[in-house]
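Researcher: I'm preparing a figure for a lab meeting and need a structural model of a single chain. I don't have an experimental structure, so a prediction will have to do for now. The sequence is pasted below. Please return the structure as C-alpha cells so I can convert it later.
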Amino acid sequence: MPQSTMQDDYPLTIAPILAHGRQLHANSKVITCTADGYHEATFAQVADRADKLAAVLTSLGVQPGDRVGTFMWNNQTHLEAYLAIPCMGAVLHTLNIRLFPEQLSYVINHAEDKVIIVDASIAPLLARVRDQLTTVEHIIVKGTGDTSGLGEGLLDYDALIEAAPSGFQYPEVDERSGMAMCYTSGTTGNPKGVMYSHRSTYMHSIMVTSTANVALSEHDTMLVIVPMFHANAWGVPYAAWMIGADLVFPQQFLQAAPLSKIIADTRPTLTGAVPTVLNDLLNNAPDTDMSSFRLVMCGGSAVPRGLIQGYLDRFGVPIVQGWGMTETSPVCAIGHPPKDMQGLDEVSWRTRTGRIIPGVELRITDDAGDVVPWDGESLGEIEVRGSWITGSYYNVDDPEKFHDGWLRTGDVASVSPNGYVMISDRAKDVIKSGGEWVSSVDLENTLMGHPDVLEAAVIGVPDPRWDERPMACVVLRAESNVTAEELRSWLSERTPKFWLPERWSFITEVPKTSVGKFDKKVLRARHTAGELEVELIA
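Model: Understood. Here is the structure written out cell by cell.
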C-alpha cells in the first residue's frame, strides 16, 4: 500500500488546544459566578495561571503519569486544572462531589491520587474520608471555608499561584497516554474508572464543535451546568477553549432562582444539563428570559416530551437530546430532527434519543449476541465502538462489559434505518411481562406529559400471573389532587393496553444518582421492604 505523505505523527494532545486558545482567542471570557457577583478573566489570563499551576504541581513532585484529583465546583480554577494537569503529562482525576464517603475514598485510593485540589466550600465532604486516603501527599485548598477536618500541611491555591514562575515549558507527551479519569457513578458495586487519552479527548472536542453535535463556535457563550466532575462536562471545556467560546461557570448556584439570574446577566447562547435541572427551571422560574439561547442540550436520562414542548412553548428554545455515558467521553448521539421529517413533527423527533454522530459505530444485539437490523422495531442492547469509546476499565477486569471489541452499554433500544436511536430501557430496568417487553422509559415520559405530574419513575414488580408488571411511582405538582385512576385512564389513550400499570405509588421525590439520573434501584428496594404505599387499580 502507498504510504501517506501526511504529518501523521503530529500529536493530538491537550497542549496544542491550550496554545491555540491562548493565542487565537486570548480575549475570550471565562466568567465565574460568586456570592458577590461575577469574576471575569480572559483566556490569556487563565492560560498564564494554568502555566503557574503546572509549575506548582511539578514543585510538589507530580510527574508525568501521576494522578491529580479535583474536588471542585464548575469554576475558573477547575478550568485551570483541566488545562495544566494533562498538558504537564499528569492525569486529571475529577472527583464526583456527590459520591458516598465509601465510594469517594475508594476512587481516590484506586486511582492513587497524589495531590487533590479542593474548593474550601466543600472541604468538609472530603474531610469525611481524609483518614482513609493512602496515596494523597498534598491537599491544595482554593478559597475560604471550614478545612479543619483535612488535617495539617494544607496549601493555599492562590498563594501558590502568586509565587509560581510564569512560562512553564510543557513536555511532549504521547497522544495515546492517559490525560483524564472519570469513574462511573457506581449504582451497583464500586465505581469503575475510565482513562481518557489525549487523542480521544482531542477527537471528541472537535466533534462537539461540529454541526453533527451542537456546532459550538466562538460566537457562543456556553453556560456550563453539567458538572465538570462528570465525563469532562460532556467535553465542553476543551471544545470551547479550542474555538474561543465564552464560558460561564455557575459554581454551586444551580437552583432555579440563581440560574435564572445568571442567564439574565450573562446572556448565554448554549447550555447542557440533565432533565431534572431543566425541569426545575421551567417549573420554578418560568419567567426566565431565555431569549439569548439558540439551543439547550439535555442528557443523562431520557428527556420527556413535556419538557421539550414546555421549553418551546414557554421560552421558544429548542431542546436537543444527547446520549452517551462515562465510557464514551460521553457523546455518541444527538437528537437533531432530520431534513426529511417523514411525516413526524419536530417534537417527536426531538424525543428520540438521537442520531449516531460521525466517529461512532453502533449496533444492537439480541440475547444471543446476534446483531439485529436497523428497522426501527427490533430491540436489542446497544453496543458501540469508536475513537473516544473505552476498550476497558482502569485496573479492573470486566469482560462481560465488552463484546468482540465493542462496548456493551446496557441500554436497550431500536434504531431506525437512518440511524436514530430510540432507547426503550436500561437492560437492568427492562420489564418483561408475560413474555412481552414494557418500556419503563416510554411510560415515564408519557406520564410526565400529564399537566399534574412533576416526575414519574416506573419499576418492575413481581406479579403472580405475569411474572412482572410495571408500577408507577409519581410525584405530583403542588396542590394537584389527580388520582391514580385518572392518571391510568389518561395513560390508556397514549400507550398499549398491556403496558398500563395496575400499581401506583405517590411519592414526594424520585431518588436520584450522583449525576442526577433516576435511581430506580432505590425504589425497587423500598418496594421490596414495604416502604411504599401502593394503590392497586384492577
